């Protein structure tokens, strides 16, 4: 058998734009994240695949839900705890060198999070590029190259391919428009909301086959058929010719008929970090996070992002080595980047796999993950650490899950991917802040972990109760998964696990199997992190004129600010 945990989380979020259409439920992934510890010895590699925890938050029956799905009476406590920065959890995490008693003794730490800085307000000026081939739901294989100008105008290239190595280009999109930053997002902490307006969208086909594929997609609707007639017949295809889908010369918006949007520009985050360099000072890397893409093509026109895609990197300050970066930066709609073909690596997942940084999911989820695979009996176990902030400093709860998985088979739908089935048979939960602890104690008796009260930082087994109703955890649970393994330019092994459905549903049937991937996990003993203290100041100096995120206010200051409002509420 195989094993994967799906924890599905549905929150009553009145007023969130992401819920405007069909009351869509947003997915939540629980984290198993690494804590500071010793370097992990690498066990012998053995074929195995990795699981993914997916969560749906269900509020207890009969209790009014607030925006975060907790009982309304608890909202004042929640506000105070969030503003206090979850200091109790932070202090607990510092004790014992950051180790929690239920976790493996050998874990790989996250990078030094003090050396990752978000720039507020974000400065978009300059060129931003993909660092390799990206996979969107569908699947769609693409490379992005965006340039933003000081007058708020932008020019974007999206290059589409037939293969996961991005070596066989099909067509390129040229997008021009204007973007305006608005305000800090009240939905996704650490992000900035933006408005955009498209001036022009054009397409260049790099083969007759690509032209026929796009025309076939347009034939699925009446508006699309009208647009398909504007494209030349395949026999009249001209290499390098630009056909306008949207603009002054277009009679209708044919980009919309294709399902094209740039809603990714409505959510923005610019982040700066330091990349370690062997025998040299760390290198400054700037990353641009744009809004996530809905996993269902039909919903993309109406979806407003609450999570991120794989980040773009500044063409001026990108990670090294990056064999594709200079090639991508020089490309345009007539000359798409052609990356060298890469052979798919076999899945060899023995050992520990960790999140290299804080991950963000739709519906305001921040997490880190840690997986361990045992190839001799095809079993797995994982920790999912959940946080309330985009730097993963303020823990809220942890889920431990374990089970089995099936032998992988090559995916027919997604080239380069491997299909597996995961089953979750055991799970444990640890509340890491007072709000989560109180919520679990308010739950129905024996609905989560059996009799007895929940305590902050104390782990409890939820297997006997078939999961945890307040958290939406169901046991046993089966999911149909997609995995892929790669090596980055530094030789580190990367593990990609299937992207969770945006609507909050579970891939519990073969038809719902993912067609794209989440952020990669890194093999534990292939990662080395660490910086000299003097390098930390580089992240506090604005490069593009932006300002770093402010530090969390000290506890006494927050108490002075909160005291009048808190006692007024009492």
From TrEMBL:
Protein name: APC down-regulated 1 like
PANTHER family: ADENOMATOSIS POLYPOSIS COLI DOWN-REGULATED 1, PROTEIN APCDD1-LIKE
Species the sequence originates in: Bos mutus grunniens (Wild yak)
InterPro entries in the cross-refs: APCDD1 (IPR042425), APCDD1_dom (IPR029405)
Main location: membrane
Biased composition (Basic and acidic residues): 13-24
Any GO BP annotation: negative regulation of Wnt signaling pathway
Keywords, alphabetical: Glycoprotein, Membrane, Signal, Transmembrane
Domain APCDD1: 105-341, 342-546
Subcellular location: Membrane
Stretch list, region Disordered: 1-52
Origin organism lineage: Eukaryota, Metazoa, Chordata, Craniata, Vertebrata
Listed Polar residues bias regions: 1-11
Signal peptide (from-to): none
Membrane disposition: Single-pass membrane protein
